[in-house]
Amino acid sequence: MADEKAIIDVETFDIPAWLLRENEPEDWHAKFAKYYLPLGPTRTLLKAFTAYLLENYAEDAAAMRMSKMASAPHSWTIMARDWEWRARAKQYDAFEFGQTAQVVSAARQKIQDLALKAVESLEKALDNPRTQVAAAERILDRAGLPAKSVHVHEIQPFTSDDYAKAAEEVREWQAQLTKNSNG
To answer: Could you tell me which residues come within 8 angstroms of residue 38 by beta carbon, excluding any fewer than 6 positions away?
Structure first.
């Protein structure tokens, strides 16, 4: 259950509806807080009573299941009605939903901030010639793309004609260099 100190409005001194009320029997409020509230929006009095039985009287709970009890005992129904368990639980659910929404929103913001920092860091790394290859590889890796292409080339064997042609091109190249350096 939510921390009581954190939920009391210190400006108005509003006490949340699900906390112990004045003159409310403590043992019944304990059942409300322990067995009814935690069941969430789909809670029923019978589910709360069953949880109570399972924890305190396991053999009675088994017997109750076999008898397929249709509702909680009259004492539970009276206390739930008199102390407005359903309305109080709805307020509790709304509060819990708001708390969860705040946590989710903060987590979402943190993820967005971290993602932005990561992008900025990678952009800086891409601008630096010493780190740009590694940064590009990290980006591609995170995107699930291969950082290095793997090409399979079939190597054709050289023929004697290929060697003769290459030798002729080297002689021409040497002649050109010699001619350019002499004059």
So the answer is: 1
Evaluate if pTM is beyond 0.70.
no
Q: Rounded to an integer, what distance in angstroms lies between the CA atom of residue 2 and that of residue 19? A: 10
How many CA atoms lie less than 13 Å away from 85 in the CB half-sphere? Answer: 26
How far is 9 from 156, CA to CA, in rounded Å?
83
Q: Are 61 and 53 in contact (CB under 8 A)?
A: yes
The pLDDT score that the predictor gives to residue 11 is 67
**Residue 146 dihedral angles phi and psi, to the nearest 5°:** -70, 135
Cβ(29)–Cβ(20) below 8 Å: yes
Stretches in the chain below the pLDDT threshold 50: 5
